[in-house]
Amino acid sequence: MEKRIIVAIDGHSSSGKSSMAKQLAQKHAYLYIDSGAMYRAVALYCLRKGWIKSPDLNVEALIGGLKDINISFCTEGQGLPRICLNGEDVEDEIRGMEVAGVVSLVSAVPELRQYLVGIQRSLARNKGVVMDGRDIGTAVFPEAELKIFLTAAAAVRAQRRYLELKEKGIKASYEDILHNIEMRDQMDLNRQASPLRKADDAIELDNGQMSPEEQNAWLEDRFNEVVYGKNRN
Ligand code: DC
Question: Which end of the chain is more exposed for a tag (fewer CB within 10 A), N or C?
């Protein structure tokens, strides 16, 4: 039987992690877990509860309320997992600018990180998982067999995000998106709890000049090297 591994894909906001991760997971019938969606769902919960008066988050309320927050993934048919907050599918709602604007406040809270890391580890107990995020290769699965760290210039990432949102019919200006990406980079890199950084044994890829097909082929080669000990092409 084919060896099943954990693939950790980390990198900056909108660096294309999820597209690569989803494609690999679908191709190999692995579970795809978008850890950012988990932080986004908690941010949405905090917004709904009125715990965020930007730039302030009521951290005590969040920590006290963790026991009432249930984060899971629901999959319809053969489709990709969709994030559920206390049983409600919030996959679409968490993608807008409102949540993007406050999620860094929420993801900086160590107690929340600990709570979500516990769920992330339990989802991967049978391996065969591709998970993307910021701390997957460093904190969640330091023992992952394949670790990727993705980068690209902020302007390139903002342009991609702009087109993505436009395609989904979500209104946002390029300038707002760029500002949000730069702000999240700063917060992700500088927070105390599990800041964004490349694991020593992660393979770094700057995908700024690569097409989605080239990125997928590159990742497939890395996967084959780990699982089969060679590049199959
Ligand atoms: O990948 P994303 O943009 O959907 O992530 C949303 C936010 O969650 C991002 O600002 C950083 C945070 N995050 C994190 O702190 N740790 C992770 N493993 C994933 C995301």
Answer: N
How many other C-beta atoms are found inside a 10 Å radius of the C-beta of residue 164? 16
- The CA angle 195-106-5, to the nearest 5 degrees, is 55
Task: Give the Cα separation of 162 and 164 in Å (integer).
Answer: 5
- Calculate mean pLDDT across residues 2-10: 94
What range defines the domain where residue 120 resides? 6-227
The model carries a pTM of 0.93
Cα 193 to Cα 199: distance, rounded to the nearest angstrom: 15
CATH number assigned to the domain comprising residue 185: 3.40.50.300
Whose C-alpha lies nearest to ligand 1, atom 2? 36
Q: What is the CA radius of gyration of the chain?
A: 17
| Amino acid 231: pLDDT | 64
Residue 1 lies inside a defined structural domain of this protein: no
Helices (H), the chain: 17-28, 35-49, 59-65, 97-107, 110-123, 154-167, 174-190, 212-228
Helix (H) or strand (E) holding 62: helix 59-65
Overall number of domains in the chain: 1
To test the pocket of ligand 1, the residue of 103, 149, 196 to mutate (highest count of ligand atoms within 8 Å of its CB) is 103
Please give the C-alpha separations between residue 65 and each of 56, 62, 162, 224, in angstroms, as whole numbers.
17, 5, 34, 43
